[in-house]
Amino acid sequence: WFFAEGEWFKLEDYLSLAGADPNSGYLMYVCERENKESGWVKILTPAIGTLEKGAETKADIEFVASFADRGDQKANLVIKSTDVNASVVEVPISLHVNQAPEFIDTPTSIITSDNEVSDLTVVVTDRENNTFDFVVVSKPEFVTSTENDDKSIKFSIAPDYGDAGKYSISMKATDQYNATSEHEIEVNVAKTNRAPQYTSDITILRYNLGATSEKMDINDLFADPDNDELTFTVTSLDNSIIEAYQSGSAYFMVEPR
User: pTM for this one?
Assistant: First the structure.
């Protein structure tokens, strides 16, 4: 079986057609149809030869940058001979491939809280001192960015209440030779619990002598900005004048004496 690049083959379908049980297990070997070279340096000179005494020769070497990683590649050309004074000679070989801009000491994740402001400065450099462009690909709405003259970018992260969750800031830097690097920072915003707030206009309760008890709903008096369920206690400062006690999970009774 030979397949084109990117083509998928479902082995279970073949086993079913062949009358085999797809769940019985199988062993498969995969190899390349054509063996293609992938080394970043190639010796073009014949590997074996003879030299007369005092003669010289040269070794032709081909560098293939497309097979190399970005940065420095190092190897040794090893020449073995019957020369008793130099039976083995090693010649250093190196290749440098343009590197993409780098994000220096930039975190991969940060933790903050809603209603909290955090600043983060991202520094980008290029080892070959090539010119490069830096862009913020995506960011949450509560993040603002300012590019500085030294090719750094300052982020101000200011989530509001209700912004708790997981977000990301995505950045990309590309040098003049189109070498590109990307970096993503995960922004984890923790929820800040806020206290319930008194929202009623009632500040004084007035009762006539002999008045009956009154049932009051705590939700008419307080609201939680995070929409959390409220729990409460109620106490009278002078039970000889008025008595107050809880009645259910959301109500309390006020009984004038």
Answer: 0.63
